[in-house]
Thyroid hormone receptor interactor 10a
Amino acid sequence: MDWGTELWDQYDIIEKHTQSGLELVEKYVKFVKERTEIEQNYAKQLRNLSKKYNLKRSGKDEPDSRFSSYQSFLDVVNEMNDYAGQRELIAENLMMNICIDLTKYLQELKQERKMYLIEAKRAQQSLESTYKQLDSSKKRFEREWREAERTAQYAEKTDQDLNATKADVEKAKQQAHMRSHVAEECKNDYAAQLQKYNKEQSQFYFNEMPLIFNKLQDLDERRVRKLAQGYILFSDTERHVMPIIGKCLEGITKAGTNVNDRNDTMVVIEQNKSGFERPGDVEFEDYSQGINRTSSESSLGTPKGPMDILGRNRSKNFWLFSKKSKLSPSTLPPFSSPPAPSPANGPPSPKFGRDPLSYCLKEINKTVKPRISSFRTLRRSPTVTEDFTHLPPEQRRKRLQQKLEEICRELQKEVDQRCALGKMKDVYEKNPQMGDPASLASQISQTSQNMERLTGERVKYEVIRPSVVYSHLRGLFIYHDDIRNLLMFFLSSPDGAHSDESIPDPSQAIYAEFDDDFEDEELTAPIGNCTAMYSFPGASEGTISMQEGEVLAVVEEDKGDGWTRVRRNDGDEGYIPTSYSLATKGSK
């Protein structure tokens, strides 16, 4: 069934239907465009959201970057950014495959429809023109026929009139004959026009208009099929990216499963472990036994309460057994005025009831500044320094090692770049057509400056790093003189006279423990020699200065940290950079 047969008389309906069909296509294109704008805005907002929360990965410089929860959050943000990219792809495909394609196809349909309507209008105008000619010939035939009848009646009346002359009768007959002839011609013309109109009308209703209607039907069917394809594309466009969107969602799920609470806990410990020991108990000081101790900055004294302990020395960091923690004179009772002796038969002093050496060590711990003054001190934000002195020893050692590794990596890059520029310069010198060697001078100069700067920084941090370890180790000991003075005071007190049997010889037992601690300080046999290739100031603690060409004895070889322990002929020992010296005969 087609429109030409079934709707041969519904030209206006067909015209209106095809127009409404094209308007539906326009409406759908507009709908898809608005959907595209929504997708674009949605993707843009997701992009902005991802950009807002996508903290740049700073690696070792970012404390939180090692937490699995932090990394998973970055993964979630990145997956969301990829998800936004898929929404953008949906918008782009909708615009290209539906909006642009349908708009172009719609314009073609409009032009084709317009052409068919023009053909129908032309055929209709031709038929109307033929009909006008038919109507004109018909009216002429009617007029001439009536005139011929009137003339014939007049001629017949004149012929019967007795008073009419023969001439009048002949004239009337001739006039009637002429009118009859004209009427016959009009009749023939009318018949011809009628035949022509009938033929054209048949052609119009059975050939021309059905053909045009069928063409419009085909146009409308193609429009419907194209619109149906647009509907399908509307769904397929999003379905095609669903696997990738699914991967984005799977990535977010994987990021959640990758969070490791135990690992994050270990990272917190590793990043913030100070290396300090917990403060010991505050000892009871019995002033009733005759010990008069003066409260000072180096003595804890008798705390009045928790706030007295937490509030003490807020602005200072104290290091247990550090060099600065020498016993001040105010912490030791004067030797010229020992405490009054106890009664002869009285009980012994509680300080020396069991072991005087243990009590002495406790008294030393009491008089040394505590390592951590308070938790409030830990919460403060100290001034960040280049050598990380604001950090606890453990963290400082790690940061110095990280800094040194970073400088070495940068220096290696500069060295590689310098080698590449040198090779390029050699190629330019051998083949001038490939480039001008002078054009590389500025880059080579800049690279050389960077190498010098990084080398200086590496040397600086190589000097700082062993001094930190050395000073930390030295902080674990206190001086023999302070111990000797304190022990001699306690041993010379009358309270210790009754317990001579339990007191070892001061020259042996008292110093035995501390002699063990200082065994490493004794001179050890050198394992070889080395010659200084460059001068080294040795300004940092634990290092030793040297002059170019000076021969030194190697006491401890490089353990992999870039430092060698050496000794001069005068007995001075310290660390020097391994790269500044050249091992000579006899050195390992």
